[in-house]
Amino acid sequence: MSNRSLVTTFFLTGLPHAPALDTMLFGLFLVIYILTVLGNLLILLVIRVDSHLHTPMYYFLTNLSFIDMWFSTVTVPKMLMTLATPGGGAISFHSCVAQLYSFHFLGSTECFLYTVMSYDRYLAISYPLRYSSMMRGRVCALLAAGTFVSLCLVFSST
């Protein structure tokens, strides 16, 4: 005889706290989330508009802001829904897996992008005269795309 139980829903219990705090926590986390998204959008907009910022360092910073914006968007809306509704703690198995993979994919991509950014700064400091010929736009785009593609390959094989 085998176990034939099927898990379709999880209930997020979180840390124990007074239910009266839900409204205050909802407002606090909503403000933090909105400021995070608006801050990242502002970084994207300023770098896009100002032509003086079209350098490799700011190109990677644009990618980092984009990833950071989506990284916070993966978890915070579900947390806000859990705080706002009494039965909002339930999450389906498929939603849980999608959120888990998205969270890990974006977090790993952010770490890989930090590595690429540190390599960019290493080249700028160690080889200042050859830096502009070494870090052309095509190289920057390939390095940034490589972070996404390599992680897609890693997560598709699991």
Topology:
Elements lengths: L8 E3 L9 H29 L6 H29 L5 E3 H34 L4 H4 L2 H20 L2
Antiparallel strand pairs: 1-2
Helix pairs in contact: 1-2, 2-3, 3-5
What distinguishing features does this structure have?
Rhopdopsin 7-helix transmembrane proteins; flat; two-stranded antiparallel sheet; 158 residues; Olfactory_GPCR; transmembrane helix; sensory transduction; mainly alpha; 5 helices
Please, could you describe this protein's structure?
By secondary structure, the protein is mainly α. The chain has one domain (20-156): Rhodopsin 7-helix transmembrane proteins (Rhopdopsin 7-helix transmembrane proteins, Up-down Bundle). The protein contains five helices and two strands. Strands 1-2 form a two-stranded antiparallel sheet. The model has no long low-confidence stretch (mean pLDDT 87). One of its GO terms (biological process) is sensory perception of smell.
